[in-house]
User: Fold this.
Amino acid sequence: MYKNIMDLHVHTDNSFDGNHSVMHMCESAQDKGLRAIAFTDHIEADIFKEHRFDRVAAQAYFDISKARSAFYGSLIICQGIELGQATYDLEVSEELLNKYNYDIVVASLHNLRDGIDFSVPDYDEFDDETIEKLLHEYFDELMTLSSWDKLDTLAHMTYPLRYICGEYGRTVDIKKYSDKIDIVLKNLVDNGKALEINTSGLRQKIGTTMPDESIVKRFKDLGGKYITIGSDSHYAEDIGKGIAEGMDIAVRCGFDSIALFQQHEPIPIKIE
Ligand SMILES: [Zn+2]
Ligand SMILES: [Zn+2]
Assistant:
């Protein structure tokens, strides 16, 4: 059992798909003996205005601030945000990050510029070529996103595979995208950013972390310094799930610390 379990990707009921309050999530984290937790409720930059994500951001920030006071000294609570599709509306994204004093920006990509989440399509209707094209477009967008210097960690890289491979059982040859994956990882390395090991896949049909170990290893080989680990839990009972397995992967890939973030600064916490 590891000493410092840190879950840096957690959703509360301030997320449209969340379920439990910040306080309830904190109690659960404390019961499970976590050292740190980052609340990262969804803010989707590309639909920010029409869905009034300004209100979500304000409420989440307020709730997390209160929880930090309540749990001061017993649980490290990071002010975070899962910012989706940041590069589709940079003005909205940067204005938001200037407004709030976040510890960690978990940057994700849930959809292409057409706005349909990768969880939505019926992939049985897609032939292999269509899937290949979709994944090329996904990695193209990730290349753009990973070069944006305002993110702190890149969330659930290979997210579409959760559905394409996990839910629909299709086989994807990841080697076809290795040039693009390398560019994404190099962008993170060059900007001193972290790569997230998202453990939600371990609880789902895909059965692996996102990204999987081979990509984490490649990140290390390309000079990657910082890893964050997040359960992406949307329920209190899922907090901390898979974090130890994520740490196992980090160790096998040659990392000796996991990053905690405070005020966008990575703080390496030794794996022990
Ligand atoms: Zn996400
Ligand atoms: Zn998430």
Remarks:
- The CA atoms of residues 143 and 183 lie 6 Å apart.
- Residues 128-146 form the longest helix (19 residues).
